[in-house]
Amino acid sequence: MSSTPIKFYQVGSFAIGNRLLPADDRSIQSDPSRTNALNSGHRACQGCGEALGARYALDAAMRATNEQIIAVNATGCLEVFSTPYPESSWRIPWLHSLFGNAPAVATGVAAALKAQGKSDIRVIAQGGDGATVDIGFGALSGMFERNDDVLYICYDNEAYMNTGVQRSGATPPAARTATTQAVGENPGNVFGQGKNLPRIAMAHEIPYVATATVADLRDLEAKVTKAMSFRGARYIHVLVPCPLGWGSQSCDTIKIARLATQSGLFPVFEAENGEVVASTPIRKRVDVEEYLKLQVRYSHLFAPTRRDDVINHLQSIADKNIARYNLLIDESESI
Amino acid sequence: MEKPFAITLAVNSSLNNHTGSWRVEKPEYVHRMPPCNSACPAGENIQNWLYIAEDGSYEAAWRALIIENPFPAIMGRVCYHPCENVCNRAELDQSVGINSIERFLGDYAIEKALTIPAPAVESGFKVLVIGAGPAGLSAAYHLRSMGHSVTVRDATHAPGGMMRYGIPQYRLPREVLDAEIHRIKDMGVTFEMNTRVDDVHEALDEGFDALFLAIGAQLSKRAYIPASEAARILDAIKVLHGVEDGTQPLLGRKVVVYGGGNTAMDVARTAKRLGAQETIIVYRRTRDKAPANDEEITEALEEGILVKWLSTIKHVDEKTLQIEKMALDENGYPQPTGEFETLEADSLILALGQEVDFSLLGNSADLDTKDGVMPVDSTMMTSHPGIFAGGDMVPADRTVTTGVGHGKKAARNIDAWLRKTAFEKLENRDVVTFDQLNTWYYTDAPHIVRERLDATRRAKDFSEVVKGLDETNALFEARRCMSCGNCFECDNCFGVCPDNAIIKLGPGKGFEINLDYCKGCGICVAECPSSSIVMVPDK
């Protein structure tokens, strides 16, 4: 865990802010003069997790670099909803080229800055899971392998949402998408496929890899801040629920991200040079069912006939994560 | 602006795009009723003074508290804290120790010698308060705050009523009682002690514009118990009064108390402190049916007091008495079993409840009474215009806190009556329930238990049994409050909005919704820990 939990009542460091804490100990997002890197008026759906995650991450990156950052954006929801010509919601230098080449463009921006001797200006590349795990995967792997000085942030909403909810390499098993319909004996996305990009990034032994969600702002801010303290290739994978694609209530975006972590389905951890160095323990463990039942993309597991076999299979994935990342710690040590 | 080749539109900010037009529902900040406030017989705004205390502003918290109740140090000792019984935090871990924080604030004010300013403007009205108990004193305080000239008359020699003559010192040290009453005196309230009012109307004719009656219920109920002439039977109220006056009654070495209410507990524990070797309480029903507060029963048992539950007293002799065992019938009522037992007893103290002594009112026959109490209307006024009543003499729970609440309510209505207006109470019945809170955000924090004097030590003298919290503990305890239904500026709404549509107004000022951009997703409502934002249809 990158952020230091504050044992301070009544909300400690769980809530965004805390009027009882000194200003320096509060989150960046609680500051009324925060930069709002992604401004109001963007066209993201109601309750968009990605819009939230992008603002959280880039505001933290701006704070960490004294506002000296350039962002390169892959094609995807984030690009489309933020910048329909001639309007833009970005309040940072921002560049969009193609769906698959954001890592390569970011590498070029970093190289150009280096050539000009502007080492204080830092580069961030960002994209959705489609651009990251599928279409731009080759370019990303190259960026990792060359250890280019770029922080790549993937906002993972687990499918191609912008084009109409098609399956991506990050779509979880059993989830219904436009291309993995809930039909047949094994409805939804098949088990055993897809990629775990944080682990692939770790395999490149780059300086820093981390996962985070929009449900834990303090953790996300700490990880972005920490990432900006490294030089070289860095990767942060942020889970961002999508009300449209997941079929969830727009008000439940953060709740669902929280349940993803508390069930163990989405492990929150960080790794340095290829080794896991810390993980965020589960505070209030729930069964995966609590997470699944809020989403229409899993509704075929509950009706018309309940598919305990599939639910148990998903539970076993969560249990495996809990064991692998040591997500359950002694109660007395938790805060 | 000069545009590049093939560019037809000037680059612009997305702020031009008012996404608020997508919305069908909008969030709205509200103040809802925390369960503690709604359960407080004195109508305290508990959540509010806890909120103020949370950042260490104890004086400000105390000042907010005494707007409703001038006796925090007393409350923090004798109130049975119905607020804690309904606290939503109980479902998370344990209730917030509201009572202990109230005591801390009260003691803080006494220690710092904080005073209450006299009213800035005198109204010119004169009000007479009869009875210097909790209800009378509370009424006097509130009436004086409103600028009225107040006189309090009482037949005893020191003010406090049952707080002095009923509640033993080990629960309420007299210096605490004196300090909080003195503060009211310092506001300019006139106390006429040792003054019995025999005729209410005559008193009113002395030039008072209104009158508040709060004579309490001081007459012990009697039960017919066959007794030999040498049997020593006392009444609990007189025993407690005597201890306060220094005329300690002779109880003997073995004392039996008859009754299951708070007075029974108080008198039994007092008897133990006066040197009784054995004190036995006899009560005809079971512990869970006993009207006494459970904490008081526990403390009594800890001090070595024995209780014969399901027993009635059949006959009293000089050195013994006979009790009959009872059994509960199918309806839960005790029925005699014909099984008898003999207890040794030098004296029997009856604590079977109290009645209002209307003879104190003398020639006031035109005031209606019913079932041994005096009915009042919704403004606390009796059947006689201008004469109001409250406390134990009107139909209600007989606790100090209820009395204090009556005093406040009566004062506000007397004020309105004098000024020929009507007092409009702001009703807020929208009580927050536990399932409406988002408790994820509250840190895990178990309740701090107040230290108690060791049971073997406390039965020897009248030292205070329950200790107070120190500042660190009080602050910790205050910060356990979940602020049900009221914003405590955790910034969650401000942070979780994907559209940056929440405007933070600064410390103490809360937040506003920027309706130009709010899409109505409802995340702020879902993630508000304290349920102080609601979605409403947008017109």
TrEMBL record, chain A:
Keywords: Oxidoreductase. Gene3D superfamilies: 3.40.50.970. GO terms for molecular function: oxidoreductase activity; thiamine pyrophosphate binding. Pfam families: TPP_enzyme_C (PF02775). Residues 75-238 form the Thiamine pyrophosphate enzyme TPP-binding domain. CDD domains: TPP_PFOR_porB_like. The keyword Oxidoreductase applies. InterPro entries: PorB-like, THDP-binding, TPP_enzyme_TPP-bd. This is Unannotated protein. It comes from freshwater metagenome.
TrEMBL record, chain B:
Residues 478-508, 509-538 form the 4Fe-4S ferredoxin-type domain. GO terms for molecular function: iron-sulfur cluster binding; oxidoreductase activity. This is Unannotated protein. It comes from freshwater metagenome. The lineage of its organism: unclassified sequences, metagenomes, ecological metagenomes.
